[in-house]
Specification:
The structure is a homodimer. Chain A is mainly alpha-helical. Chain A has a domain of 150 residues. Chain A contains ten helices and no strands. Chain A is globular. The first copy, chain A, binds a DNA duplex through α3.
DNA sequence: TTTAAAAAGATAGTAATACTATCATAAATA
DNA sequence: TATTTATGATAGTATTACTATCTTTTTAAA
């Protein structure tokens, strides 16, 4: 028996649901491959169409433009990650242990999840690191936010914030600390691999060091707020 | 007497030194205005040329493309900020006070600095917040880094890291904490204004709260490493 | 099983973007 | 005054980011 994980996506993100057809699934699959290969700037619907063996117009029937597609992919990732977190922290009683597990999940390169067949999570993780912030660092962030495009990200942040508060009800900045952990899990990874002098992990290039740094950061903040 | 602050820029960033002519200075001045107005994605050399009253080709004589121009502006900002920091922390003995001052400088909206006539620092600060990471979140980050485009950012990070170590020589992650402070000073500002539920400052929208959060984060980390 | 609706393929076309090239003119400098 | 250098004016190209239309194929309802 194989379990199928399904993430319900915001309908305003697409013109036609990419999960509803083979072509749609191919768009998701190949866009993840192509964006992680060429970067978001050089990524075009024309190249994507060539990769898939369809036409540009075919892609445009699913996504209005490449920005929406990027937002879709990031939203999908955050929703998937929130599920991972709820799955892996289920039945954990100690909130501090829970928080440690969350940090580990955030900062660990994902392996391809068999439960989702058309998205390669390990490539998507690389996209999130290098392109993720471009989903919201735009002039349209306000409108996009109104349409709830960033809800999965905000939900994840809220979940992490709640765990932080469970660890330490007096802590004053649970949401900001949550967004800091999430962003830094990725930025420190990007820096470690691309601008190593911005980190202390340039020699080992080990994710475990990023995790140790984030744990140190978080638990010192919470310890002193007791 | 008026002091003129001059920042020596990496020559590989431009084709012709924009500081060497009126047109060049206009390119800097108007690009800051136009990018902060339209965002980097919608910003084009054509629009910039129209704004200035010159031609597209004229801009291309100074900058190879808009990415180089963005990198130029961010590099300029980091170099300017490093000077601000060294100026405002000069003669401070207590490294903890120094660090607090640095955090304040990082997270406070800049006023236009009279010492530089063609760059509006307050607009540039907004660009750094919303577009700054796009300077390095690209596929060419490795080559750009080889050409030392990010040296001012790395230098600033090193300066902050040194102050952190002066506060607490045992602290294990001075560079990562430095890059975390720098990035979060801007990201928390962006979130506060655009995706407020990712922060704890959505009501007040006060920079002072970001500063308080960062101080809390940093000094709790250092206190426990004594 | 037929029929109609929906999706996909094929092709064309447009406006804008991201450049490069050329030639004339104006300004600075030697 | 001659000459270099910067700017202006104009043109042109390849690519991007779409939109439109028409045909064929697939799917799903009657």
């Amino acid at each position: 028996m194989k379990l199928q994980l399904h993430i319900k996506m915001n309908e305003a993100l697409f013109l036609r649901n990419p999960e509803s057809s083979e072509l749609g699934k191919n768009i998701l699959k190949h866009s993840v491959q192509l964006i992680s290969k060429t970067g978001f700037e050089a990524f075009t619907f024309k190249k994507l169409a060539e990769d898939i063996g369809t036409t540009e117009a075919g892609i445009y029937r699913y996504f209005e433009n490449k920005h929406k597609l990027l937002v879709y992919l990031t939203a999908w990732y955050w929703a998937w990650l929130e599920f991972q977190i709820s799955f892996h922290t289920n039945n954990m009683n100690d909130p501090a242990e829970k928080l440690k597990r969350v940090i580990k999940l955030l900062a660990t390169t994902v392996e391809d999840d068999e439960k989702t067949n058309y998205i390669d999570e390990s490539l998507l993780y690389q996209i999130i690191i290098a392109e993720g912030s471009k989903a919201y660092l735009t002039k349209q962030v306000g409108e996009d936010n109104k349409q709830q495009f960033f809800k999965p990200y905000k939900d994840l942040c809220a979940v992490v914030g709640t765990i932080i508060l469970a660890c330490c009800p007096n802590y004053k900045y649970p949401k900001s600390l949550a967004s800091t952990i999430i962003e830094m899990a990725h930025f420190q990874n990007f820096f470690m691999n691309n601008l190593p002098s911005l980190t202390d992990f340039s020699e080992s290039k080990e994710e475990s060091e990023i995790i140790a740094f984030l744990n140190d950061l978080v638990f010192n903040s919470l310890k002193n707020a007791q």
